[in-house]
Amino acid sequence: MSAAVPGTCKPLILCVEDEIDLRDDLVEELEAAGYKVIVADNGGEALQRLDTIRPDLILCDVTMPDTDGYEVLNVLRGTRPDMSDVPFVFLTAQAGSEHVVRGKRAGADDYLVKPIDFDLMLATIHARLAQVSRIQLKLATEINRIGSSFSERHEASARRAFKRVTQTLDYVAAGIVLLDAIGTVRFANRAARLLVDDEAGDKGLLRLIDKVGTHGIVALNKAVTAAIAAYQAGEDYVDSLAIPRPEGQRSLLVTVCALDDYDLQEEEAASVLAVDKLASEERLAVAIFISDSEYRRPAPVDTLISLFGLTATEAQVAWAFAEGKRSEEIAASFGISPTTVSFHKRNLFQKTHTNRQADLIALMLTLPLPAA
Fold first, then answer.
1. In degrees rounded to 5, what are phi and psi of residue 116?
2. For 42-97, what is the HEC assignment?
């Protein structure tokens, strides 16, 4: 009898039978019907195999030495919720109704009585696999329906949430620019637009990010390219540089950071990714922080000590990072070793609850500062 098996891949059957001749016959019939078969001589071996494979269906003898079929079923249904949808079919010489009832109550899906009618066995297997396929299809359809409904319900609120976030960033003194994975500017707060070009607004910002060969833009483009590559590789990246401006103005201090391509927990993903999707068709990949060296003043040491419990030296080191100084530059200006700078950096991460230099810089640049 040929079996019209759902799907294109051969379903995997675990056949547990201690009678060698019957087991060989079962394997022959199953393989001829288009199934892949793995065998176990007894219940203990079957449980060992289930630690490394996930069959599509289990055929299991009831009466076996040591670990019998009921014990295998009890372990499977009691400790393996990941296999709760795997059909379990008993093979037994006991045709009495009390045995069938016991097997059903233990969680068996079907009962085949020896001597095995192979046509009935194949029909039973096909029916059970088809039933699982229908359930999985219905579940997937329902999940898609719920997801679509959820997306529609939350689209408006996500759009409002993103608008509130961007409005809030307009109150931050430091310029903040967000780019996607192909280097397109997706957001720039008011400070970024003003710092780049008071007159040109967004166009001035686009010139700063996109144009090569003017006022140190080559270095900025190289940093952005490297940050995008780091984002795509899942690596940390921070670079700081000064962008000269014409007419004797002080240079802009620019820090380029690769953002995390974060993996959200399922319960968080829908709402946050909805906001992210509204922000851009591409995931946000790079953050650029811009400050004006002529007007930017460090946050008072007392403020940093009060907020984060920093020492005076740690507060000064934190602000030095925010100004775009490298570790070796900080070591030279403070008269300390690079190892000591690294020690202070670790303390800063711990006390400010940040994990990366980029996060620390972002925190420092969004603190309230004294007026110029």
1. -75, 130
2. CHHHHHHHCCCCCCCEEEEECCCCCCCHHHHHHHHHHHCHHHCCCCEEEEECCCCH
Structure tokens at 137: 């299809």
Ramachandran angles phi, psi of 254, nearest 5°:
-125, 130
Let me know: does 5 contact 129? Beta carbons within 8 Å: yes
- Of 258, 235, 34, which Cα lies nearest the Cα of 126? 34
Nearest to 128 by CA among 226, 245, 35, 261: 35
Helix (H, G, I), strand (E, B) or coil at 11: coil
pLDDT at 213: 37
At residue 139, the 3 state secondary structure works out as helix
pLDDT band at 215 (very low <50, low <70, confident <90, very high): very low
Q: What structural domains does the chain harbor?
A: 12-137 (3.40.50.2300), 170-296 (3.30.450.20), 297-372 (1.10.10.10)
Q: How many CA atoms lie within 13 A of 179 on its CB side?
A: 25
Residue whose entry in the numeric block shows the structure tokens 């009495």: 96
Q: CB under 8 Å to 269, separation ≥6 — which residues?
A: none
Burial class (CB in 10 A: 0-12, 13-18, 19+), 2: exposed
More confident position, 139 or 271: 139
- Report which residue type is found at 225: T
Indicate if the pLDDT at residue 44 is higher than 80: yes
If you search the block for the tokens 């372990």, which residue do you land on?
75
